[in-house]
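Q: What would this chain look like folded?
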Amino acid sequence: MGPDGHRRQLVDLAKLAGLPSGGRAGRTALIEAAAAKWGVDPAGLTARDGAVTDGTQSISYGDLVAEGLDRSFTEDELAALPLKPHADLRLVGQDVHPLDLDTKTTGQAIYGLDAKVDGMVYGVPMLPPTRYGSKVNSVDDSAAKEVKGYLETVVLDDPSGTVPGWVVVLGKTLHAARMATYEISVDWTAGETADVSEDDIQARSRELIDSDAGSILHTEQPETRAAFDAAAETLEAEYTTQSVLHFQMEPVNATVFQNADGVWETHAGNQWQSLILPTLAAALEVPADKIVMRSYMLGGGFGRRLNGDYIVPAALASKAVGKPVKLVFSREEDAQFDSIRSPSVQKLRMAFDEGKAITGMEHHAAAGWPTQVMAPGFMPKGVNEEPYDPFAIDGADHWYSVGAHRVRAISNDLANATFRPGWLRSVGPGWTNFAVESFMDEAAHKVGADPLQFRLDHLKAEGLNAGSAPNAVGGASRQAAVLQRVAEMSGYGQTELPEGTAIGIATTFGQSRTMPTWTAAAVKLAVDAETGDVAVEKMWLAFDCGTVVDPDGARAQCEGAALWGLSMALHEGTRIEDGNVVDLNLGSYTPLRMVDVPQIEVAFVESTEVPVGLGEPGTTVIAPAIANAIFNATGARVRHLPITGDAVLAALES
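A: My prediction, written as structure tokens:
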């Protein structure tokens, strides 16, 4: 076998190491080859630092491959391969130097905005009045022709339907293209959602909740009618959230051209290339294998760049003019074209028997569904055979033992038609857990129980809540453990606090039941009695994410996620008016400022279990902890996000 063949084998081993069980398989194949060469028992060999050794002799991986390495594994063999003992792990659990840190801090990292191609022109979009259904009637660019560097204005023809009614203004420079947009007049016919407001969307959610629409999730006992018919008491509450924007640091952009080989190249930061590739192929009317997507650093994604729709208008503009086009969105255009987190309405109910024990619970949630709009093939089916978007309901199927448990996910068709719903950091659990953990707090107070003990009493590792391998071993008992841990960290219920100051708690499982990250938070805050404004003073968080691979990176992820959760709880929220979001820049859309960042204390449960995710769980738990702390401080129950001072005052008066 020649050098190229050896290289291919090494590449195949590297690929294998990137698969589940792949590292174990590669190590096993190398050890077996060395053992056969030396005529020894493989059990006495180790593979480390690029070589296999028995303590007295060694051979490099490359030499083993050069001598011929032909080993394959069945799925059963892969599943049976032993993991390296936890005590033998040398890198896991150690702080490491991130590979991308140096280029990011020195300014050498290349982002989409840095892309350059010979002969390219710059494009700026002029957005239509509605996301869908708009049509260009006429364009008057006569005044723009006086702008130095202005080239032309292109009305896009989009067979994919991604950017209907779009106009792209082209210039020799970005400045020229931007200045020209101020001199161009476009007459549009708006789509059918031109008069839709956020109130309309929320009213549609309530209408759908009151109907039989939606998908019933798989829970242990999804039929709740008997429990509520026999209930001695019931509790019911509605929770709502506003539309939320991404506002990632780098506005979306893309550079597209057809190269000398007739292949279309796209240059952009993108989180999910295979999602937008078929759409690009439809828009350009070429086979997908005639498109190459070159990905750059994101400049902030947080779910926005999962949807690569911003690449489509750049591609269409390039096709129209026969030149490379670099399309750059302003902050305002980025906000208007955002794949926002949909507003939501949730209705929760709970049934109690005469002894105040929970006998049943229902959770009905309606919102726009990003997966339905952009990747419907990823939607599973519920017990009633209706598909549902897990990214718009995860978290509602909680780990509490509540008897009969019905979870219904409902797609808001008006939301889906008005904007393109998107995935935003923590997705559904960012708002479903606000409802679940606020409602559990309300339930505790209704039956006169301590909110901490009430939760612990219902986090029972039994039935479906017992958990399962590989990701959810221990189930509800691990969620109870992080809740107990954060209560101890914060002194919840044990500390005398000034009037108007309190600590609230909440616990979630981070993302989905199939890969839970057990999470709990306590938040200490003070409420201004005159304005209702909330000042968060400290946040405590505890996580059980299994084995912590990179402690410093894990802590950074958790702190960032918690601050994002704080931002969405108190500050972030726009509204839909006339079919579009009303907040287009940071003058009116005001995320958390540095001056409002509280102290944060993070703890990880030591564990040898399978590592799971940490980028999003910390986001999910902050809003309910804040709402519960506000209730503890004032007696006011706030059921809407974001929580404003006016909302707190209104709750106090109700």
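The longest strand covers residues 534-544.
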